[in-house]
Backbone:
């Protein structure tokens, strides 16, 4: 089943203890769609500037990602600069230039209308909400956000949360939205705001799913998937979006959304996050194979199996 994703398609400059990379192809929707493309058809809605050329387009084409919904506008693409020199688990934002995203009016191509899965990747919540409202028939809607939007755009973000089935954010963001420093209490408070499932990402320590009280949710109310202990992390950027891509891509590939499918999706999310950090930018995500992905899934099995 196809996924439509809206979010940033960007150029990033990042510095990590392993080095520095200037203006690499990035953005939340880019990481998400590359990761999800190994599981299902992905369709992107975004805007890029004149700096997005054939080289960048080829990355999407190589993964059969539909970019008819990526508009080209005069000016520059979204630009983000971040540093992980102080903390590998959390980026310090040095610069955010919205550029062409500032005046973006998302349009959903006719060919995307039958997407049953919708992912609202990190971008201005006003844009997330417009896309959500324009896709009333989506069967499963998930989304992400970040401190930048929680801090200064909270009313718009709260509107987005009302329309989500699943929210994927990190621990700091969960505490920020709820205004509560206890993670479990904060997660419960976030579940009162709309989503029936909350996936809290803990960087190199894995991710925890909290399920709300909906009758659709059967089984345990909390489930945790580990992250893979890695000897070297080259660039943590995009790990969260890649987790989301693996998680949602796997769900979209399943014939039925059973509680077991959600648990396996948490592991596929961790698998894709573990690949993303092995190289700078999207380099590692661009060259994977489904075989490698399933082999790593089995490593996760061995990591956590008791018998
Ligand atoms: P992640 O490391 O998974 O949280 O996401 C990193 C990606 O998010 C980078 O490639 C950035 O281009 C993108 N990004 C950073 N800040 C923002 C923002 N305010 N809105 C949308 N995307 C952003």
Residues:
């Amino acid at each position: 089943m196809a996924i439509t994703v809206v979010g940033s398609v960007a150029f990033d400059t990042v510095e990590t203890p392993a080095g520095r990379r200037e203006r690499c192809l990035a953005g939340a929707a880019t990481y998400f769609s590359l990761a999800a493309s190994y599981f299902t058809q992905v369709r992107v809605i975004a805007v890029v500037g004149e700096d997005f050329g054939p080289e960048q387009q080829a990355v999407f084409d190589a993964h059969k990602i539909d970019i008819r919904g990526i508009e080209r506008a005069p000016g520059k693409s979204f630009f983000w600069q971040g540093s992980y020199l102080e903390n590998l688990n959390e980026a310090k934002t040095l610069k955010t230039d919205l550029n062409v995203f500032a005046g973006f009016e998302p349009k959903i191509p006719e060919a995307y209308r039958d997407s049953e899965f919708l992912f609202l990747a990190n971008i201005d919540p006003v844009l997330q909400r417009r896309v959500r409202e324009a896709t009333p028939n989506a069967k499963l809607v998930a989304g992400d956000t970040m401190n930048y939007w929680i801090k200064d755009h909270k009313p718009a973000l709260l509107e987005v949360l009302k329309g989500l089935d699943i929210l994927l954010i990190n621990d700091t963001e969960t505490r920020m939205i709820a205004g509560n420093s206890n993670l479990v209490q904060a997660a419960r408070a976030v579940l009162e705001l709309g989503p029936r499932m909350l996936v809290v990402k803990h960087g190199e320590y894995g991710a925890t799913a909290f399920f709300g009280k909906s009758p659709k949710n059967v089984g345990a109310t909390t489930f945790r998937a580990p992250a893979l202990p890695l000897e070297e992390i080259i660039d943590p950027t995009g790990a969260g979006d890649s987790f989301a891509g693996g998680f949602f891509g796997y769900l979209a590939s399943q014939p039925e959304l059973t509680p077991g499918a959600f648990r396996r999706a948490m592991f596929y999310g961790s698998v894709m996050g573990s690949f993303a950090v092995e190289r700078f930018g999207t380099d590692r995500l661009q060259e994977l194979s489904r075989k490698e992905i399933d082999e790593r899934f089995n490593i996760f099995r061995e990591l956590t199996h008791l018998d």
